[in-house]
Amino acid sequence: MLRVDIITIFPDYFREAFDYGIIRRAKAAGLVDIQPHDLRSWTSDRHHVVDDRPFGGGDGMVLKPEPIFAAVESLTSARRREDIPGGKRVVLLSPQGKQFTQSQASEFAKCEQLVLICGRYEGVDERVAESLVTDEVSIGDYVLSGGEPAALVLVDAVIRLIPGALGSETSATTESFSDGLLDYPHYTRPPEFENMRVPEVLLTGHHADIAKWRREAAEEKTRKNRPDLLK
Ligand code: 6GU
Fold it and tell me: Which residues contact 31 (CB under 8 A, 6 or more apart)?
C-alpha cells in the first residue's frame, strides 16, 4: 500500500480529483491511500498565516518554513532529510525542481509513503529545499501558479505504475517512454472515415508486419514531435 500525503493551502482543489479511472480503482483495491492536508492546520497563530514577505525585498509572498516543517514531522516523524527512512520521499513541487521523468515515477511507485509539498509560484522558504525534502521536482518548463496541478500529474503517473493498478498488465510497459520512443499510432473502426483510411497493414492480421509498421511509425512520430528523445 502506497500512502500519499499532499500538503497544500488548497485541500479542496483535490476533492474529486482522485475519484476517476485508474486512481479510483487503485484506491478501491487498497493499493493507495491519498490524503490532502491543509497547511494552515500546522500554524499556531490566531490567523493561520502560512506566508510572509521575502527578505531582501521583491514581489509576492513566500511560504514560511515553520508550518511546512511541522507538517512533514507530523506525517513522517522526521524533521530533517537525513532522518527520512529509505522507503519514504518528501517531494517539493516547484518550477525550480529537477524535471519529473518516467524513471522517477517508477522509483516513487516502489515507495511506502510520498509526502508532496505544493509550493506557490512566488516561492517557498529555501530551507525546505535545503534541509527537509528528499526531492525537488518540476513537471516541465512552464510556470504554474501553484504546485497543486503538478501534484495531480505526479500522483497519476506514479499510481498507474503500482502493480495491479492497470487493467491489462502489459499496457504500462508497452507505452511511450518505456523504450525511449513515443507510442505508435492507434486506430479503431471505421476503416474509412471522411476519406481518411486506416493504414492497410493494420487490417491484414499479419502480426509480424504490424509489429514492424508500429516500430517504424513510433520512430517517425518521435522524429517529428520529440527529436530530442532520439539523441
Ligand atoms: Cl511543480 N510548480 C509550479 N508552480 N510550476 C511548475 C511546476 C511546479 N512544474 C512546472 N511548472
Answer: 1, 2, 159, 162, 164, 165
